[in-house]
């Protein structure tokens, strides 16, 4: 998993020292990249930068089998996969968007899910990420409208069967 692919992306398991970098990637991806598809109010309740605590962030990443994408010595993105094949988070730094980072992450997650014996990959995907996931073989199973802090959002329950 530590090998560098043709795009220069290296995927490795999350480490404690990745907490700040992955939180920075998350906030930039939500506040910059996703702002093209969500209102300022939606971005505010989704990102909640003033409420993010690095120690809590680290605990969540550790509990979720998180993997980090590194380009050079910089964290370019991160994602996770459960033993059932559910992806809780996948975010790529806007600086590294459209350079194969998310594709490299999905490849590793798919391999892990197969090792776990999962029958499919699943995720709740933003409007912004939907085209990418469709390009990776995921299909929309439902449009969803979760409410975060009283603000209605839109996302998609997506799945990819693993054969």
Please give the structural blueprint.
Elements: E1 9-13, H1 19-33, H2 40-47, H3 54-63, E2 66-71, E3 74-80, E4 86-87, E5 90-92, H4 101-116, E6 120-126, H5 130-135, E7 139-144, E8 147-148, E9 151-152, E10 155-161
Parallel strand pairs: 4-6
Antiparallel strand pairs: 1-2, 2-3, 3-5, 6-10, 7-10, 8-9
Give a brief rundown of this model.
The chain has 163 residues and is an alpha+beta fold.
Level-1 CATH class name of the domain at 9-119: Alpha Beta
Helical region count? Answer: 5
The CATH H-level superfamily of the domain at 9-119 is Gcn5-related N-acetyltransferase (GNAT)
Largest sheet, strands/sense/barrel: 4 strands, antiparallel
Strand content: 25-35%
Termini separation comes to 21 Å
Q: What is the string of SSEs from the N terminus onward?
A: EHHHEEEEHEHEEEE
**Poorly predicted sequence stretches spanning 5 or more consecutive residues:** none
Kindly describe this structure.
- Helices cover 34% and strands 29% of the residues.
- It has 163 residues and is α+β, with helices and mostly antiparallel strands.
- It has a domain at 9-119: Aminopeptidase, CATH 3.40.630.30.
- The strands form three sheets. The protein has a four-stranded antiparallel β-sheet with strand order 1-2-3-5, with helices on both faces. The protein has a four-stranded mixed β-sheet with strand order 4-6-10-7.
- Strand 2 and strand 3 (74-80) form a beta hairpin.
- The mean pLDDT is 94.
């Amino acid at each position: 998993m530590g090998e560098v692919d043709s795009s220069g992306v290296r995927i490795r398991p999350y480490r404690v020292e990745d907490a700040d970098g992955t939180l920075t990637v998350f906030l930039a991806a939500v506040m910059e990249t996703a702002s093209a598809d969500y209102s300022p109010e939606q971005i505010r309740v989704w990102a909640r930068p003033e409420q993010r605590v690095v120690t809590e962030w680290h605990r969540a990443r550790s509990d979720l089998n998180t993997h980090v994408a590194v380009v050079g010595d910089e964290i370019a993105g991160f994602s996770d996969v459960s033993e059932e094949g559910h992806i809780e988070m996948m975010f790529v730094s806007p600086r590294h968007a459209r350079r194969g980072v998310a594709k490299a992450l999905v490849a590793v997650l798919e391999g892990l899910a197969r090792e776990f014996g999962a029958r499919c990959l699943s995720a709740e995907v933003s409007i912004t990420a939907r085209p990418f996931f469709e390009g990776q073989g995921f299909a929309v199973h439902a449009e969803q409208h979760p409410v975060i802090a009283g603000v209605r959002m839109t996302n998609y329950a997506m799945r990819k069967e693993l054969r």
